[in-house]
């Protein structure tokens, strides 16, 4: 099956997670600034990556004191809710990683979708230090993304208004296109594009259909993600129908 440009097929989900961890370490190693901004993906695919980073093979290779952690989207539920991406990441990273509390920039989920999106955009602007994004100075060193079975990424769902947001850095998604059907807050295309690297992690046979549709040239939300740097796809054989 033809694959998006920048696609790498790997044997399985573990190989995808390890390749993503290697890329994250490399992005940190050549990050130009004192602070490193990494935007985490939600869902289930990245859990193994986060556990690897906290594990013996990688924990000493991540410059934890320099990295600031953001989210590409989250559900508008309390951070301890089983649907929360914050809870997923906290459980996956565990409690052993030395992340300074001031380096955790979670999406505010207690303000509602609209006010929360505005507040998160303010958090991003405060960190970036400017009101507008300069392509020569990306906001993120690395953005991690997943692919939904309908072709969404972050909480940018087909046919939803957030797709058309061309200036705000974060947007409310009151009616997501897939379960869980709770309001979301998502980064927008301009914010995702303000990156040195975008890395999609796609595993499992359930992602064959969106990959086929992307390969056929459908303008699914995931296909519209750009980067000031590079976009790469780490895809396992099950999703790529290879092997
Ligand atoms: C979310 C994610 C979402 C996810 C895809 C893939 O909040 O659910 O941000 O965009 O990355 O839906 O999810 P899986 O990795 O669970 O297949």
Automatic annotation (TrEMBL):
UniProt keyword annotation of Transcription regulation present: no
GO biological process, alphabetically ordered: carbohydrate metabolic process; pentose-phosphate shunt
GO function terms (MF aspect): 6-phosphogluconolactonase activity
Residues annotated as domain Glucosamine/galactosamine-6-phosphate isomerase: 12-233
CDD domains named among the record's database cross-references: 6PGL
Entry EC number(s): 3.1.1.31
One Pfam family linked to the record: Glucosamine_iso
Substrates-to-products reaction catalysed: 6-phospho-D-glucono-1,5-lactone + H2O = 6-phospho-D-gluconate + H(+)
Described purpose of this protein according to its UniProt entry: Hydrolysis of 6-phosphogluconolactone to 6-phosphogluconate.
Protein name: 6-phosphogluconolactonase
């Amino acid at each position: 099956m033809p694959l998006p440009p920048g696609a790498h097929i790997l044997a399985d989900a573990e190989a995808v997670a390890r390749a993503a961890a290697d890329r994250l370490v490399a992005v940190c190693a050549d990050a130009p600034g004192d602070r490193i901004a990494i935007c985490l993906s939600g869902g289930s695919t990245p859990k193994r990556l986060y556990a690897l980073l906290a594990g013996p093979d990688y924990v000493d290779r991540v410059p934890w004191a320099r990295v600031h952690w953001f989210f590409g989207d989250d559900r508008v539920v309390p951070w301890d809710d089983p649907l929360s991406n914050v809870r997923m990441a906290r459980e996956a990273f565990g409690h052993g990683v030395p992340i300074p509390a001031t380096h955790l920039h979670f999406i505010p989920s207690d303000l509602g979708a609209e006010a929360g999106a505005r507040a998160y955009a303010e958090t991003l602007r405060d960190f970036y230090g400017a009101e507008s994004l300069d392509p020569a100075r990306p906001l993120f060193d690395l953005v991690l993304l997943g692919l939904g079975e309908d072709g969404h990424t972050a909480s940018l769902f087909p046919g939803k208004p957030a797709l058309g947001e061309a200036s705000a850095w974060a947007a409310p998604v009151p009616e997501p296109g897939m379960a869980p059907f709770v309001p979301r807050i998502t980064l927008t295309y301009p914010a995702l594009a303000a990156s040195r690297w975008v890395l999609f992690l796609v595993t499992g046979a359930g992602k064959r259909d969106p990959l086929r549709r992307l390969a056929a040239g459908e303008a699914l939300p995931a296909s519209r993600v750009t980067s000031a740097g590079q976009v790469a796809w780490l895809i396992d054989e099950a999703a790529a129908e290879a092997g």
